[in-house]
Amino acid sequence: DNILTYKMFQVLIICLVLPRLLLSCSEPTSWNYEKVARSLQKWVNTHTAKNVSMITGKIINGVPTGVVWKMRGSRKLDGFLYGRVDGLGGLTGADVLFVYPDFETGLLGTFDNGELVVGRAVDVVGERCVEGVKQVEVVESDDGEIVWERAAEGMDRKHLEKFATVMDPFEKKSVYVGMSSIPGAGEGLFARRRMSPGDLVSYFGGWKTFHSSMVFNNMSLQEMDTAIAFRYSIGREAPERWNYHKDLMLDIPSEFRSISTYRTTLGHKANHKFGQENADYVVVDHPVLGGIGGLVATEVIEEDDEIFVDYRYDPGACPDWYRDDYLEYNAQQKEEIEDIEDEMEKFYEDMGLSDFFD
Question: For residues 290 and 159, what is the distance between their CA atoms, to the nearest angstrom?
Fold first, then answer.
C-alpha cells in the first residue's frame, strides 16, 4: 500500500509540476517540432497575462540582453518581435523576426528599432528553452522570395500597388475567397483553419483616404453606395498614438475590388449578416502596411466556415439592402420573442398558473 501511495504521489507531482516547468522555461530543453505554435502561445500567454511587454532571460544593469520576445503594440493581435537585442536593449539590425499572432508565420529580416525595413516570409517550425527564453527555428516559406518592406511616409498608394497581387503570409494561411452562401451577395470570405474567439481572422488593408475624396455631390445614390461599399472608418477606431485624423478611412477603390487586382489582405471580402456574425472589426498595427483594420473571431470558426460581420451602418443613412435586412431581422426577432412568450404562457397554463400573465 505504501509503495502504491508513493507511486501515485509521484504521478501527481509530475502532472502538477511538469507543465509549470515547461511554461516557465526555467530549464533548457531540446528542439521540439510538434504543436510548436500551441507551445509558444501558451508560454507567451503566461507572461502577457502579467502585463509583461518584453520577455527576456537576462537583464544586466537594467538593460535586457540576449534573445528576447517583445510585443509590437499593446495587444497580442499586433504580433511580436523576436531576436537578439543590441547594446541599448533594442531590436535593430538583421535577423530580427516579426511573429504573427498565429505563432506559425513570420517576417525575418532587417528592423530599425522594432520597425521593419525589409523582410521575407518564414514559417516557425521549432522551439526550445534556453536561459529562460523560448528560441525558435524558422524556414523560408513558399513565397519567401518576396521582399516585404514597410511603406514610407506619404507613399501609401504606391506601396500598396506594389504588393497588390501578393498575399500577406498570415492571410494566405488564414482565409480564402469563395462564393458566399448569401444569395446574390457574390464573393465571401472563408476560414482556412479553425479559429477561437479572440483570434485574428484577417487583415483589412486599403488606401487611406477621406469621405470627401470618395463621394461627390453629382453622384446618384447608387453611385454613392458603390463608392463606399469597401471602406472602413479607421480614424474613429485608431489609438491616439497613431495620430490618425478621426475622419480617415481605408478604402478599396473599384479597380482593386477583384482578388485578381488586389489580394494582399482580404478582410474587405467578409459579408454582413444580421444575427450570424462570427467576427468583428478591430484595428491592428501591421509590420508592412502600418495601422490598418482587421477581423477578430467572436465565435468558434471552423475550417471552411464563412466569415460574417456587422457592417455597423446607421439604419437612417445606409444602402437599401442593409435597411431591408435590418427591418427583416428585427421583425424576425420580434416574432421569435412573441413565440417564446406564447410558449411560456401555455406552460404556465398547463401548470395551473395562468394568473402569472394577468
Answer: 11
